[in-house]
Amino acid sequence: MKPELRSWIVERAREVLEQEECKDASHDFDHLLRVMSLAETIQAREGGDLPVIWAAVAFHDIGQERERLHGGDHAEIGAHMAADLLAHTHFPQESIPLVQQAIRDHRMTGGQVPRTLEGRILYDADKIDCLGAIGIARLFCITGRYNQKVYSEVPPEVSRPVDPLLVRQLRRRPDYSPSIEFELLFDAMPQRMTTAAGRELAQERFDYMENFFQRLRQEVQGGL
Fold first, then answer.
1. Where are the alpha helices (DSSP H) in the chain?
2. What distance in Å separates the CA atoms of residue 174 and residue 43, rounded to the nearest whole number?
3. Which DSSP string do the residues of 122-145 spell out, in sequence order?
4. What torsion do the CA atoms of 129, 204, 6, 26 make, to the nearest 10 degrees?
5. What is the C-alpha separation between 90 and 163, in angstroms, rounded?
6. 5 near 54, Cβ under 8 Å?
7. Chain centroid to CA 80: how far?
8. CA gap 57, 60 in Å, rounded
9. pLDDT in tens, the chain (224 residues)
């Protein structure tokens, strides 16, 4: 039954993203499929309940459009939506709270380590998809959507270590850029992964991304 359950979960998520009219290319159905693949790779090494992981991955970003339109936290919104979508279906009903917990814990600016193995796997897979060539492309999709900068420096009034909640506020500024996001949130990202498999997968992608932003800074400053 498991392959059929996976297919049903993924298709349900696709339908919901269409219904929500999600227009964010960085959090679209393709992102879901990439995170699903990464999560399965990590689960093969770390263990964890696959149906819970599938559902948590499938529904972790379905609250994005409601957050954009009405505010709130898309992780909390998505957890509530996931429970409604899974209730009274052939999904294991006793596992729904675990799905919700994993979704609530996945946000990078949430400031806490996920409390379950399934939550840690979702967290790591989701963050790995923020790294590497895909991660660079996603950052520029996000800032391009809001007509923000190709490159800008971190505002001088921002001190480190930065409060993740402050990053959420900075993201609304017209002078925000992918370089700021990388500098403030991506430092030591591989070490912040919560599984050994996640740290290994993240390191190679982080190195590539770090080299890109170093090159971008040099070009902006007239070098090379």
1. 2-19, 29-46, 50-59, 64-70, 74-86, 96-104, 117-128, 132-145, 164-170, 178-185, 189-192, 196-220
2. 39
3. HHHHHHHTTSHHHHHHHHHHHHHH
4. 10
5. 41
6. yes
7. 18
8. 5
9. 588 999 999 999 999 999 988 877 888 899 999 999 999 999 999 999 999 999 999 999 998 888 887 888 888 999 999 999 999 999 999 999 999 999 999 976 556 789 999 999 999 999 999 999 999 999 999 899 899 999 999 999 888 888 878 888 899 899 999 999 999 989 889 999 999 999 999 999 999 999 999 999 999 998 76
The pTM is what?
A: 0.88
Beta-carbon contacts of residue 24 (< 8 Å; ≥ 6 apart): 64, 65, 68, 141, 142, 145
Task: Tell me which amino acid residue 216 is.
Answer: L
**Distance separating alpha carbons of residues 110 and 114, to the nearest angstrom:** 10
Q: Are 10 and 32 in contact (CB under 8 A)?
A: yes
> How is residue 169 written in tokens?
């506020």
Residue with tokens 């600016």: 109
Question: How far does Cα 87 stand from its chain's mean position?
Answer: 25
